[in-house]
Amino acid sequence: MKKIILLLAVMTTIGATAQTKSELLKHFETYYKQMQVQGDAQGVINAMTHLQALQPSQARLDTLAYVYVSEGRNVEALNTIGIEQNPNDSDINTEVKAIALKAVNQPKRAVVFYEELFKRNANPYIAYEIADLKTQLQDLSGAKASVDYGLANVKPDMKRGYYESQRPYEVSLKGALTYMKALVVFNMNQTDNLDQAINLLNEVITMDANFNLAKLSKDALEARKTGANKD
User: Fold this and answer.
1) Is 170 a domain residue?
2) Cα separation of 181 and 146, whole Å?
3) Which among 117, 125, 120 has a CA at the least distance from the CA of 154?
4) Rounded CA gap, 78 and 95, in Å?
């Protein structure tokens, strides 16, 4: 009799736990949807974290990391999904690692994930990111190849944002790629290619008069040229 009573108690407890978990899942799913409606990123993060604890899912984990990186919380994004490369990783997982690693100044690691994204879906946007990272890493031939691909495949309506000034701005992706070409050309030979790099930056500014970074780079190169001529 005691065994039967104990068994009934255990079964009742299991049933109550299952019901409670089911109710919690419904609660946080509803909460998640409401936070999306309100545009509350922290609320979305809280809801997804609870849902992940109740019902683990790699897809949900990837999405949670994406929300983190969209909010500029790059370290938290990487803590959520790690930095290991796995060929079975989703596109979102791979993109988050690429963006977050670049943002935390890990170009050598970041370029691996951008190259994986390029293998899956080659496009001028990713080509720009690869060129930028490879220029930082002084892989100038690799950077040039990415710029050449980007310029050969860019479309007139493609844009890229920049955030180095107090007011963010947008330029054509063609202008951005031409700017990157100027940097690559200059770094290949900082003496002989100085004029060529300045001419390319002039082209960029003609395309996008609001391209602040191109103007700053042009001013710096012209100052360098003036100093060299004085010597």
Assistant:
1) yes
2) 10
3) 125
4) 11
Tokens 């000034």, residue?
Answer: 165
Q: How far is CA 134 from the centre of its chain?
A: 16
Structural domains counted in the chain:
1
Position 62 pLDDT exceeds 60: yes
Q: For residue 106, is it within any domain?
A: no
Beta strands 169-172 and 159-162 are antiparallel
**Cα(212)–Cα(217) distance, integer angstroms:** 9
- pLDDT tens figures, 15-37: 444 458 788 888 888 878 888 88
Domain extent for 187: 122-231
Under 8 Å between Cβ of 140 and 172: no
d(CA 229, CA 101): 40
In this structure, what CATH number is given to the domain that contains residue 224? Answer: 1.25.40.10
pTM score of the predicted model: 0.86
Scanning the chain, the segments in alpha helix (DSSP H) are 2-38, 41-54, 58-70, 74-81, 91-103, 107-120, 124-136, 140-153, 173-188, 194-207, 212-230
Query: Mutual orientation of helices 212-230 and 173-188 as an angle, nearest 10°?
Result: 30
> In this structure, is residue 45 part of a structural domain?
no
Both tokens assigned to 14 = 């299991």
DSSP string, 161-182: EE-SSSS-EEEEHHHHHHHHHH
